[in-house]
Structure of Copper-containing nitrite reductase:
Amino acid sequence: MSSIPTATRRRVLQALGVGTAAIAGCAGAPGAETEQPTERTTPQEPSMNPAQQTDVDRIAADPTDIPAPIDRSEPKTVSVEMTTKEQVAEVEPGVTYTYMTFDGQVPGPMIRVRRGDTVELTITNEAGNSMPHNIDLHAVRGPGGGAEASMVTPGQTKTFRFKATYPGSFIYHCAVPNLDMHISSGMFGMILVEPKKGLPEVDHEFYFGQHELYTKGEAGEEGHHDFDIESMKAEDPTYVLMNGEKYAITPDGYGAPSMNVGETARVYFAVGGPNLDSAFHPIGSVWDEVWPQGATASDPHRFVQTTPVKPGSTVVATLHAEVPGPIKLVDHALSRVARKGMMAVINREGEANPEVFQPEG
């Protein structure tokens, strides 16, 4: 049984209807008609519902797969194409879920442009999907952040243009009615608008995203987990995830990215939510610089242990490696780490530095 209800003409029309414009801009509309994710046969408990055949082996975005820094001094038109996909994948071994994504990954691809660029953005809703989708980018000055202009039904494609008028890192997300369900299922990512003079050079850049998953089952309960709107209303997630899967970006998952002792790294972090704040902390290090809310035009905070990140927001932070060993990126609401899957790792490699840290006397 799928986590996503079967598409109907009525549901598609509801999602394109009266309430769309208000909700697309992250604001509720009293009395607005919306799609109803609970309008379906009541799902069986996951323990009675075997894990489904997966459509993809991996839903977790590679944190190193991001566009290179911009090295030009003039604005240009940047074309971006993304496809919305509804795919079954594993949250952890033995547990499947039907994700909704941009380009089949969580978080969606990072979009990277320069202040003053014009972005031509094309969104395709993959044929065979069950729901309409769209995109609201917090870097867009325009109705719904582009959500109204990009509303697409299954098999449809739309293109719109916008100018990147202010710098910083900004979240984007699906913003149809029941947008919280779509974001929870993986539909969020980041657009980085570099300042005209660019960002300071670092040795590495990494990209991560946090979100909550609300299902009928318990964390670790094997089977296919159906979406649970009641637990989402109660803000009681089954999983809190980094890059869409439990402990995906760790040595025991798909592997951890690495940096050498003496090198620097910049971390881009988006919190899709849809509901919970993150207390973003690098265990075994500290953030050398933090730009809260992704506000790279502002002066950074220095030597920050834990930085709060609101749902629907981002942070840009830097660190450097003085000693070897793992840096564990966590939400310091630690039950989310121990019980719900919220952790990633960056490995530091190189020679020991006993002046800074000596594990044995």
